[in-house]
Amino acid sequence: MASSLTKDSVTPGTPGSERTFFGHPRGLATLFMTEMWERFSYYGMKALLPLYLVAPGGLHLSAATATAIYSVYLSLVYLLALPGGWFADRVLGPRKTVAVAGVIIMLGHLTLALPSSGTFYGGLGLVAIGSGLLKANISTMVGHLYDGPDDPRRDGGFTLFYIGINVGAFAAPLVIGTVGENVNWHLGFALAALGMALGLAQYLLGGRHLNPRSHEVPTPLSAEEKAATLRKSALWAAVAVVFYCIVGFSGHYTLNWLLVPITIAGLIIPVMVIARIKRDKDLDRAEQSKMSAYIWFFVAAAVFWMIYDQGGSTMSIFADSSAENTIFGWEFPVSWYQSVNPVMIMALAPVFAWAWLALNKRGKEPSTATKFASGLILIGASFFLFLAPLTIAEGGHKAAAMWLVAIYFVQTVGELTLSPVGLSVTTKMAPAKYASQMMGVWFLAVTAGDATTGLLSIANVDLNKTGIVALEATLAVIAGVAVWMYRKKVKELMGDVH
């Protein structure tokens, strides 16, 4: 997207105040383009990943193993957002951390581009680490561009930033997916590296427009804390190396020795973090009550993401083997399905924003709990809809592409009733002591959902069977109904948060 730079007057002291980006601080253009290219690389690789894992010309793994790897990878990205935020707060500051993240992501994609299965998992790990570092901090820098939470341009700035995410996510499967599927898998991964390189170049060249606060390390580690952190990190790294050396040299190593510990961590760590905050005696009664309400939203979100993120794994693998991927006789790459959600987000997000505002003015806007219940029921409905193409395929026929498009449409509507609302309510309900950490806690709901999918796949549960799909759909609908039935109780626990 071309940037629109004008010489509109802006708040004095804003970095790059002589020019603006659609009326916003010039630094927003830098972060917009950085995030757009990073999402281009991330979503392009993600669209190729499950297809490459099952392809005869790729790693040729089973559908269950491919889904497990994909789900564990996604859970790791969101799990690492929490230490990513800590690293910026205590060690490097947001600006340097994002630069380091960009380099790590680019190296990860380049490693994936090597025609070797031995380096493939290392590349995935690098991309996950870099994404965790970046995800936690680039949004923080967008906030730094504005004069506090009351700046009238702030919400609009984040909306523009969100558009950048979806532009990158929309274009990536069309470009990277096409090259990866039709030309060469590893060339597709190399294009993802190029996308991140362009984002990193944009970030470094436009860095002068960012707010000086982005350079700061809010709560730097003391010398003693640095030494203790290094000692603990080295100890745990040594334990892991020794353990895997023993497993490897004894001839017992399989992929599950890597996947299972990460999956279990993806389930246990979110529970531990929530429990630690809930038990904190520094929280007053109102904050404790809000955290009790937040647990409802957290569990609901985990169930939602467990199903939603299968749009890139279970459904993509189904489309590859059992769908007629044609429109009016024209065949398209399977990875293009991953462009459906971002284009629908861009089309529908303004409609939802307008609808909530219109309902609010009439005093009829649904409560947060009702919105969450709607999101769960819709994600359940999407998998009930998935039963139709699954049944068609079991009858020996290819399912029409529009079945899958319809499923993605229902999931997108569900996402818009839950995801933005969840981000908002997380910031509103965060205890003062954990204000900067709660966004990482919200991401842990994604970790828990994807880790659950990964655990099912590791247990060789075929997620493309009508029985398990119906079970997941039923679970989501029951969870949605439960949230709706207890909405008044949840609202009471939320206190002054609306």
UniProtKB/TrEMBL annotation:
PROSITE patterns: PTR2_2
SUPFAM superfamilies: MFS general substrate transporter (SSF103473)
Broad class of where this protein is predominantly found: membrane
Swiss-Prot/TrEMBL keywords: Cell membrane, Membrane, Transmembrane, Transmembrane helix, Transport
Transmembrane segments: 43-62, 68-88, 97-114, 120-138, 159-179, 185-205, 234-251, 257-277, 289-308, 340-360, 372-393, 399-418, 439-461, 467-486
InterPro entries xref list: Dipep/tripep_permease, MFS_trans_sf, MFS_Transporters, POT_fam, PTR2_symporter_CS
Domain of life: Bacteria
Family in the record: Belongs to the major facilitator superfamily. Proton-dependent oligopeptide transporter (POT/PTR) (TC 2.A.17) family.
PANTHER family for this protein: PROTON-DEPENDENT OLIGOPEPTIDE FAMILY TRANSPORT PROTEIN (PTHR23517:SF15), RESISTANCE PROTEIN MDTM, PUTATIVE-RELATED-RELATED (PTHR23517)
Name the record gives this protein: MFS transporter
